[in-house]
Amino acid sequence: MIKGLSILLFFQCLGELIRSYTQVALPGPVIGMLLLFAALCLRGGVAKSLQNASQSLIGLMTLLFVPATTGLFFLSAQIMSQWLAIAVSLVAGTVLSLIFNALLMKRLVKMHE
Amino acid sequence: MSDLLSPSSAWYNDFIYSPLFAISLTLICFQLSQQLYLRSQRFALLHPTIVCAAVIALLIKLLGISYQQYFESSYILTLLLGPTTVALAIPLYQNAKYIRQLFAPIAITLVFGASFAALSAVGLAYAMGASNETLLSLSTKSLTTPIAMNVSELIGGHTALAAGGVMVTAVTGLCFGPLILRWLRIHDDRIWGFCLGITAHGTATVLAFERNSKAGAFASLALCLTGSFSAIVIPIVVSCLK
């Protein structure tokens, strides 16, 4: 577990360093994720400790974003005045996306097989 | 009310502003919210993150703690989102074998689906007169929360609004996803999981795993791919527009 967590943190550090060094427009942790993915492909397997650490963290995700989500109740008046536009675009956008994706992928899978 | 609950003794202030208190409060509220969610048979609007956030917002208001203060005291939880993002490489690696099986449909749906998810929300909000900061915060709505927050911070969006937008998207996906897919007669588990994963990320992945492991694997794959694809594309598009 500690070993797995260290590997994750190592790749995050690597990602952050690459980001600040190259000024690439990508979040450090995302660069870390892509590098770890590449490393796993090269190595051809996932170590048990890494598997455990990642499963624990992913399982905790709903808890981890509570502090950020709480901010939703303390938005500035300037953002709150746009609540209708925000709500409609999120809900309608999601429904439209689901329909679009499902129809597109259904057609593509049919062509593929 | 807040005067009643916050006597001005020094030890009391030290206590309620401490990380110990903020984290205890978050963990206890979260467990109660999770109980409520399970008791309600996973009713989407009672998603534990939302209920927990609402209860905490109310409690810190009553105790006279500012949001900034709470966020800083509980920062270790937010900090762990970093390694959690890196950890997504593992499900991505484990489900990558499915990409080879169905390469063209997955790649094309990913590119168009992830773009459509961001553009539809931004377009609708733009048409309804939302500000630039709001538009930027909404562009990450279909990414998994840790990546969405990272990207939003990078492009100048509002982190709390971005996190909230992800949650609203997740709840919408939970409420309507299965209904829409049934209405469109999608019975293929691979399409079912992948489409939910592209649009409604983490919560959709949990839902897809409840259907079966194949749908779950495709939802998880979609979550990781959408996160990586959009994390690369959104900042580039935004920097070109600026």
Explained architecture:
Chain B: Its main location: membrane. Chain B: One of its GO terms (cellular component) is membrane. Chain B: It is a multi-pass membrane protein. The complex is a heterodimer of chains A (113) and B (242). Chain A is mostly helical and 113 residues long. Chain A has 2 domains: 69 residues, no CATH class; 39 residues. Chain A has 6 helices and no strands. Chain B is an all-alpha fold. Chain B has 2 domains: 78 residues, no CATH class; 156 residues, no CATH class. Helix content of chain B is 82%, strand content 0%. In chain B, α3 packs across α5. Chain B is globular. The mean pLDDT of chain B is 89. Chains A and B meet through α1, α2, α3, α4 and α6 of A and α3, α4, α5, α6 and α7 of B.
Task: Give the termini distance of chain A in whole angstroms.
Answer: 42 Å
Number of strands of chain A: 0
The overall pLDDT average of chain A reads 91
CA gyration radius of chain A, whole angstroms: 20 Å
Q: Based on CA inertia axes, which overall geometry of chain B fits?
A: globular
Cα Rg of chain B: 20 Å
Helix content of chain A: over 70%
The major pleated sheet of chain A works out as: none
Question: Strand share of the residues of chain A?
Answer: under 5%
Contiguous helical run count of chain A: 6
* Strand and helix order of chain A: HHHHHH
Helix content of chain B: over 70%
Q: Into how many domains do the coordinates of chain A divide?
A: 2
Strand-pairing-aware structural class of chain A: mainly alpha
**Structural shape of chain A:** extended
Tell me which protein chains meet in the greatest interface and how many residues each side has.
Answer: A-B, 73 and 105 residues
The computed structural class of chain B is mainly alpha
* Largest sheet: number of strands, sense, barrel closure of chain B: none
Classify the oligomer: heterodimer
Counting DSSP E segments of at least 2 residues, the number of strands of chain B comes to 0
As residue ranges, the low-confidence spans of chain A are none
GO cellular component, one term (chain A): plasma membrane
Keywords (chain A): Cell membrane, Membrane, Transmembrane, Transmembrane helix
Organism (chain A): Dasania phycosphaerae
InterPro entries (chain A): LrgA/CidA
